[in-house]
């Protein structure tokens, strides 16, 4: 038992702090007045950083303060650019510091630094984006698109724009947002707007936080048990051994499945606990009529929700989709990699979409910019590049087969094709995850070489065959129908 504790000491301490954050949530939710409540949340956050990081706590605290100062000292037109480059430059320096010291920052400190980066850069883009949306002349609206027409036909309110009011917090509000304990240890990411609403709107008072928290937490013991069992029976380093290389190819081919399955259980446990920190404190609760989305919050009638009377708020139906990170069932059952990516760490994917993908000035490079920032945010190890940058190339092939055989299929055919796509998607993710877990190029190369880099060959053949089949299908659909025998040529 003691050896197990020593081996997993950092994880056990981190798990204990997450549970502590869940337990204090109901007490924090009831605090008042607002300024006192904000200060308590900030002190708790800084305390957690110090407990987790020790003297390395200087890194997230200094970078957070530096990012806030960069926002406030630059113009609203440029604050997002300065904040972005400052935070990511510091993130790189912070990680390189561990290469020159045996007592570098721990993995848990790295997680906190990653969340600090999301918050500082995210609020800077909120400030700039709201200013652009509210002050710049809007383009003339074109004819209603399919989505707008459908909303009108079904008598649904149109979706809000990304920004419907000016967001410009002062220094202290930024300080409280960046260092508040809720979500600081491992997420989820939430907007400054969500944080501000938590203190100003009555929703956290009337939502059934206890019920949501219990419902969220009930699966955590299962995730932890599965992770411990699988990681002990099928350890990661085994795939680098000579014994593994002597195994049958099918065994070696399927070994990454259990590695990735164990990794998923760990992520599910951490993300679920992180969501529970939010639900126990009531942060992220909005009435369901807001059509709330992960990371974003209400997507329709946000300004009306802000004006909701207390009597309506008391009886409203709520959800916590705003702080939902993982759709576990969706991750396990998604047929395609594209769908799987949409339900994995949704709050962070929202951040990447609104901060990088939507705002990158070169349309043809948007996806590459988003992937590159995602890689750098995770770390500089080769495994992150191998894992994340392989996705768009696999999607090229997958999209062809979805269009040809799955999209319009029905009945048994759709089930069979769906299973094949699910298997290929799962295998591709597992193969990529092996690189993500092995991290360094030398370890990745040893493993992939032992497997003859087979999946890249399979994927390439998969793509080439798909392109041929798609070309044949296009030729057949363009071919004119044969002239009837009874029709004479003119």
UniProtKB/TrEMBL annotation:
Belongs to the membrane-bound acyltransferase family. Keywords: Acyltransferase, Membrane, Transferase, Transmembrane, Transmembrane helix. The keyword Transferase applies. Its main location: membrane. This is Lysophospholipid acyltransferase 7. It comes from Bicyclus anynana (Squinting bush brown butterfly). It is a multi-pass membrane protein. One of its GO terms (molecular function) is lysophospholipid acyltransferase activity. The chain crosses the membrane at residues 12-28, 40-58, 79-96, 116-134, 367-392, 454-472.
């Amino acid at each position: 038992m003691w050896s197990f504790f020593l081996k997993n000491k950092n994880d056990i301490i981190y798990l204990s702090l997450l549970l502590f954050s869940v337990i204090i949530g109901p007490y924090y939710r009831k605090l008042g007045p607002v300024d006192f409540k904000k200060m308590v949340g900030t002190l708790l956050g800084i305390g957690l950083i110090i407990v987790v990081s020790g003297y390395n706590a200087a890194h997230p605290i200094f970078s957070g303060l530096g990012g806030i100062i960069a926002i406030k000292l630059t113009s609203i037109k440029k604050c997002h650019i300065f904040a972005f480059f400052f935070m990511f430059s510091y993130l790189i320096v912070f990680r390189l510091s561990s290469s020159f010291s045996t007592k570098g920052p721990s993995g848990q400190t790295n997680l906190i630094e990653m969340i600090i980066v999301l918050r500082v850069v995210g609020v800077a883009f909120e400030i700039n984006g709201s200013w652009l949306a509210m002050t710049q002349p809007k383009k003339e609206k074109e004819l209603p698109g399919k989505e707008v027409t459908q909303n009108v036909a079904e008598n649904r309110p149109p979706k809000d724009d990304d920004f419907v009011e000016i967001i410009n917090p002062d220094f202290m509000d930024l300080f409280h947002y960046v260092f508040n304990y809720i979500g600081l240890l491992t997420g989820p990411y939430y907007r400054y707007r969500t944080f501000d609403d938590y203190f100003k709107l009555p929703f956290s008072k009337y939502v059934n936080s206890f019920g949501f928290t219990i419902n969220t937490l009930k699966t955590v013991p299962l995730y932890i048990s599965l992770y411990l069992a699988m990681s002990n029976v099928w350890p990661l380093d085994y795939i680098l051994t000579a014994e593994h290389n002597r195994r049958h190819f099918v065994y070696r081919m399927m070994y990454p499945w259990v590695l990735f399955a164990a990794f998923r259980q760990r992520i599910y446990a951490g993300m679920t606990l992180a969501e529970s920190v939010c639900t126990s404190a009531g942060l992220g609760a909005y009435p369901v009529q807001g059509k709330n989305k992960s990371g974003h919050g209400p997507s329709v009638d946000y300004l009306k929700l802000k004006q909701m009377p207390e009597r309506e708020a008391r009886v409203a139906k709520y959800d916590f989709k705003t702080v939902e990170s993982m759709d576990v069932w969706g991750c396990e059952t998604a047929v395609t990699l594209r769908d799987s990516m949409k339900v994995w760490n949704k709050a962070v994917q929202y951040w990447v979409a609104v901060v990088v993908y939507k705002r990158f000035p070169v349309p043809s490079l948007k996806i590459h910019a988003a992937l590159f920032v995602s890689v750098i945010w995770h770390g500089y190890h080769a495994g992150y590049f191998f894992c994340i940058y392989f996705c768009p190339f696999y999607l090229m092939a997958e999209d062809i087969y979805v269009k040809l055989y799955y999209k319009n299929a029905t009945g048994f055919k759709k089930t069979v094709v769906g299973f094949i796509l699910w298997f290929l998607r799962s295998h591709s993710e597992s193969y990529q995850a092996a690189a993500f877990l092995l991290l360094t190029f030398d370890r990745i190369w040893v493993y992939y070489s032992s497997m003859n880099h087979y999946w890249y060959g399979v994927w390439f053949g998969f793509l080439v065959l798909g392109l041929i089949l798609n070309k044949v299908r296009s030729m057949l659909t363009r071919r004119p129908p044969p002239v009837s025998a009874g029709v004479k040529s003119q």
